[in-house]
């Protein structure tokens, strides 16, 4: 009869599954304490015996092991026992050790103590693991023969050398950190390091280490270590981990949500639920959860309502039948509630579970529904539209035409279907074919005007715009044509064309020039008469702005006339236009607005009349009215008008205005002695001299028989005006040659400045008085009056 029975799971994790209650009498610890903390089972062993126990745990299945071991009691002290264990592999793949422990007597304890060290040596030599004894400085004192099979070294190759020499860099760092703790009394196991082989390659081993303690001093005098060959296992794990990382990265990189579920079966081997094994970030985002919220959880605990759904039964069938599941636009309610949404769902069997991927297609489903509704609305609009809408194959045959065709042409829609150009006027067929070719060549849209036969055998004008419906390669797969009834428009355009033709005939045969411009003044048309008036052909004017055709000094008249017309007034203007030979010609123009159907001004029409002769005649008359016929100087009327303007109240130039009254000395004697012809010639010569010696802005006027008045505008003061008068007097002091004779001439001049109170008569009178003072003082002099 055994004192203690136990069951210890070795893999996938170390876990004590059962121990008899009698363990409390053996070690002082209750069975439940061991079950709650499986590490207590190993830690209660004497550190010197743990390596042997670990070797038993790693033994091959079905092999029985017998060990004499020491356990630490809870109350202190050591208890000895003989342990028998056997490892088994259970149906689920896990490994467990079934064991029994018998308490041994004091005599048996002594025998065990005596033979223990010898058995350690034999076990070490016969074991497949490598056992080493290492001194506190790291030198290898002894190593088992098994080192040849594990690492390829002979024991003599290692003894006396530092253990770190046989580790890779990472292993040396691990052992360097581990050694002080083991020497301090700890035992460590399961530390994976990489040892070197004679060929230079590395090999993974599982390292265990415990101290050898001097019972007298209590200090560690050596370390017993073991290397268990786990190279293939570690490499397999690394490879599996790499594959797992790749699979995990692939799963995480998917844009669609995905979860991996494992079936949970009841006692009858029926699927009762699923456990969430894995979930990708897209699924976490879609479900508004974290990975920790669901991994390891049962599906029905997350969403109990799922059990009653049709989809749940379908998922069960995927695992049972081992067939993939494809569902499109399935209505599902989110786990956390909310509005039902539509999903495309895919599920495939994986071992005793399945992988589920889904995609939220609610928007696509709604878009399809909206599209169907939109198509219904558009079809209703097309059928009720006053314009005709038709669909054609690329060759032109009608596939469908709206009911408006019966209202426009009288044909029922079903009688039009399938026709191509049968009802089109033969003169208009080329225009339709050309538009069709443009669409097929890549143009986005094309239009044409054409006549179609009505059911009552007449013709009706239509205007159509066609667009091509293209596939992904850009090929036209069908044509959509919108046709509008323009019969009334064509009738109006025909009448308008006839009217314009009559108007053009009148304009072309008129003696004046008729023109039309756009709203911005660009010349659109001008009659042939322009060539007679200005020398330019109509083509040389078309496209040019009318304002640019006018002499620069008269363009303000064009602007004013245009503004008057735009304000609703009729307007005309006289202005100069350049001729083709480089001159200018006076014309008189009229401007009238052109309005569209909405009353908006869209351009101008008008006429030009050649008034060059009239203007020249008017200028001649005006010149005669303002100048002295004999001398060509301004006459009394003109100079009085100028002075009136200059002396007007508020004129800033009034303070810089002077007049000089000139009277020739002895003119009457010359006229009486030599005759009126000489007198007239003398006056003409005097006029020329005076004009030449005054400033350009000054006015010289003949106001009497031999009286000349100078208007000096812009002189700063009376002294400056006097200097001008003196210059005139000196110029006239030189005799004038007339018919070979030198005729002497002098002049008396009175000069004065205008003041704020002067009027025209007062200013001239003051200058006249000063002139008489010059006469009385001996003539041939200038007198200034203030």
Could you walk me through the main structural features you see in this protein, from its secondary elements to its overall organization?
- The structure is a single chain.
- The chain is an alpha+beta fold and 786 residues long.
- The protein folds into six domains: 1-126, Beta-Lactamase (2-Layer Sandwich); 128-253, Beta-Lactamase, CATH 3.30.450.20; 254-364, PAS domain (Beta-Lactamase, 2-Layer Sandwich); 385-485, Beta-Lactamase; 496-613, PAS domain (Beta-Lactamase); 627-785, Reverse transcriptase/Diguanylate cyclase domain (Alpha-Beta Plaits, 2-Layer Sandwich), CATH 3.30.70.270.
- Helices cover 37% and strands 31% of the residues.
- It is built from 27 helices and 33 strands.
- A six-stranded mixed sheet has the order 26-28-29-27-32-33, sandwiched between helices. A five-stranded antiparallel sheet has the order 2-1-5-4-3.
- Helix 24 (667-674) runs antiparallel to helix 25.
- The chain is elongated, with a radius of gyration of 63 Å.
Quick structural summary:
With 786 residues, this protein is of the alpha+beta class. It is elongated.
Poorly predicted residue ranges: 112-127, 505-511
Q: Quick one: overall form? A: elongated
How do the strands line up in the largest sheet? Answer: 26-28-29-27-32-33
At CATH level 3, the topology of the largest domain is: Alpha-Beta Plaits
* Helical stretch tally: 27
Query: Regarding CATH, which class of the largest domain?
Result: Alpha Beta
Total tally of structural domains: 6
Q: Tell me, rounded to a whole number, the average pLDDT.
A: 85
CATH architecture of the largest domain: 2-Layer Sandwich
Helix/strand structural class? alpha+beta
Instruction: Kindly estimate the percentage of residues that lie in beta strands according to DSSP.
Output: 25-35%
CATH superfamily of the largest domain: Reverse transcriptase/Diguanylate cyclase domain
Radius of gyration: 63 Å
The N- to C-terminal Cα distance equals 162 Å
Determine the fraction of residues in helical runs and give it as a percent range. 25-40%
Major sheet: size, sense and barrel closure?
6 strands, mixed
- Give the strand tally: 33
């Amino acid at each position: 009869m055994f004192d203690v029975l136990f069951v210890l799971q070795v893999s996938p994790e170390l876990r004590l599954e059962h121990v008899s209650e009698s363990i409390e009498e053996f070690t002082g610890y209750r069975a439940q304490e061991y079950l709650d903390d499986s590490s207590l089972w190993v830690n209660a062993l004497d550190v010197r015996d743990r390596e042997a126990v670990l070797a038993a745990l790693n033994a091959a299945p079905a092999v029985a092991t017998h060990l004499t071991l020491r356990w630490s009691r809870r109350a202190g002290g050591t208890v000895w026992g003989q342990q028998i264990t056997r490892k088994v592999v259970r149906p689920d793949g896990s490994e467990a050790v079934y064991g029994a422990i018998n308490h041994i007597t004091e005599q048996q304890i002594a025998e065990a103590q005596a033979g223990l060290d010898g058995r350690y040596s034999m076990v070490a030599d016969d074991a497949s693991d490598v056992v080493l004894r290492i001194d506190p400085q790291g030198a290898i004192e002894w190593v088992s023969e098994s080192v040849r099979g594990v690492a390829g070294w002979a024991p003599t190759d290692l003894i006396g050398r530092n253990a770190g020499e046989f580790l890779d860099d990472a292993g040396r760092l691990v052992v360097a950190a581990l050694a002080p703790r083991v020497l301090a009394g700890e035992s460590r196991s399961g530390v994976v390091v990489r040892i070197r082989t004679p060929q230079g390659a590395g090999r993974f081993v599982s390292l265990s280490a415990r101290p050898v303690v001097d019972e007298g001093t209590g200090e560690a005098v050596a370390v017993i270590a073991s290397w268990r060959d786990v190279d293939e296992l570690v490499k397999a794990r690394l490879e599996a981990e790499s594959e797992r990382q790749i699979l995990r990265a692939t799963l995480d990189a998917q844009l669609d949500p995905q979860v991996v579920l494992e079936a949970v079966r009841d006692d009858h081997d029926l699927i009762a639920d699923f456990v969430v094994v894995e979930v990708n970030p897209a699924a976490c985002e879609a479900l508004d959860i974290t990975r920790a919220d669901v991994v390891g959880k049962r599906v029905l605990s997350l969403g109990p309502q799922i059990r009653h759904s049709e989809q749940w039964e379908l998922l069960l069938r995927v695992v049972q039948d081992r067939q993939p599941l494809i569902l499109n636009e399935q209505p599902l309610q989110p786990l956390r509630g909310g509005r039902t949404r539509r999903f495309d769902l895919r599920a495939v069997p994986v071992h005793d579970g399945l992988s589920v991927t889904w995609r939220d297609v609610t928007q696509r489903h709604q878009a399809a529904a909206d599209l169907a509704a939109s198509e219904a609305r558009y079809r209703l609009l097309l059928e009720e539209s006053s314009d005709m809408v038709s669909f054609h194959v690329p060759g032109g045959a009608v596939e469908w035409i709206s009911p408006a065709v019966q209202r426009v042409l009288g044909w029922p829609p079903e009688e039009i279907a399938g026709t191509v150009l049968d009802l089109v006027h033969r003169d208009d067929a080329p225009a339709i074919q050309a538009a069709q070719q443009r669409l097929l060549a890549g143009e986005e849209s094309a239009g044409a005007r054409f006549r179609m036969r009505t059911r009552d055998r007449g013709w009706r004008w239509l205007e159509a715009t066609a667009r091509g419906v293209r596939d992904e390669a850009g090929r036209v797969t069908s044509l959509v044509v919108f046709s509008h009834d323009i019969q009334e428009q064509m009738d109006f355009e025909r009448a308008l064309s006839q009217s314009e033709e009559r108007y053009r005939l009148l304009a072309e045969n008129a003696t004046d020039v008729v023109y039309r411009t756009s709203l911005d003044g660009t010349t659109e048309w001008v009659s042939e008469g322009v060539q007679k008036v200005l020398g330019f052909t109509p083509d040389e004017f078309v496209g040019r702005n009318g304002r640019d055709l006018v002499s620069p000094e008269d363009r303000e008249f064009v602007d004013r006339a245009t503004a008057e017309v735009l304000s609703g007034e009729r307007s005309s203007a006289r202005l100069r236009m350049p001729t083709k030979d480089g001159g200018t010609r006076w014309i008189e123009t009229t401007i009238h607005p052109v309005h569209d159907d909405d009353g908006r001004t869209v351009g101008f029409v008008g006429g030009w009349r050649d008034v060059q002769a009239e203007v020249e005649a008017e200028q001649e008359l005006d010149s005669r009215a303002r100048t002295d016929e004999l001398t060509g100087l301004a006459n009394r009327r003109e100079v009085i008008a100028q002075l009136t303007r200059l002396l007007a109240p508020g004129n800033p130039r009034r303070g810089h205005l002077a007049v000089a009254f000139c009277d020739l000395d002895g003119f009457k004697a010359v006229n009486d002695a030599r005759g009126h012809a000489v007198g007239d010639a003398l006056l003409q010569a005097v006029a020329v001299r005076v004009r030449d010696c005054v400033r350009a802005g000054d006015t010289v006027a003949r106001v009497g028989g031999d009286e000349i008045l100078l208007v000096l505008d812009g002189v700063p003061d009376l002294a400056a005006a006097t200097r001008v008068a003196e210059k005139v007097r000196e110029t006239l002091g030189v005799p004038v040659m007339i018919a070979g004779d030198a005729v002497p001439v002098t002049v008396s001049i009175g000069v004065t400045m205008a003041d704020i109170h002067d009027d025209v008569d007062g200013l001239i009178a003051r200058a006249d008085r000063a002139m008489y003072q010059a006469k009385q003082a001996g003539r041939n002099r200038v007198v200034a009056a203030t």
